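Suppose you are handed a protein chain with no further information: no name, no annotation, nothing but its sequence. What can you learn? This example shows the usual starting point.
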Amino acid sequence: MREVVVISGKGGTGKTSLSASYAYLEGNNAVVSDCDVDAANMHLLLDANFKNQSDFFSGEIAIIDEESCINCGDCFDACHFDAITPGDDFHVVDPISCEGCHYCYRVCEHDSIVMQTLKAGDLFISDIKNSTQMVHAKLGFAAENSGKLVAKVKTQAKTLALKGDKEFVITDGSPGIGCPVISSLSGASLVVLVTEATVSGLHDLKRVQELVKTFNLEAVCIINKYDFGMSPIN
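A reasonable first move is to predict its three-dimensional structure. Written in structure tokens, the prediction is:
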């Protein structure tokens, strides 16, 4: 089994369209994974049915027990992220601002704060229109750890590919060079770099190429829309 990972240095180069085209051409010979968990959209192109869903848990969030909170304000003073708001009878944690650092939990002398595992997203396994399966995910609003969710998508896709004796895993990675992209590259047999014939496209291609070289992975490059603006040849 070989994994082809399609990435780009920037958005809008046609990376997902190309990934979906590869997936459609391979048909039942491949399992598809969409690792662009921050803005997944390949399910639209491949008519995914979201058949199986599971929760993705990662990180923690502080929860204040309103019954035992005495409104002393120690947690409010300790929080460096402005995630705690004083109330009339007890303090409240803003789940979006909370970084799960445990500081408020440690300073509370009344055991009024607990750290709760956070649901950070959803993982899906779908049947798609080319008679195979796709593993994809959606990171929750303001959630972190996208790299861990990408790793889970890839692991599930490879498991399905091995179980079904598929020859390929076709992976649509995230644009850029951040944590989700690094996680997408793990274990790749071939990396396809998609760029466009623009100054910004070339700039971001160089950045992502350096990233791929760091992992010593085999790579090829596709210049999408290279002939836009060219005069027709008579």
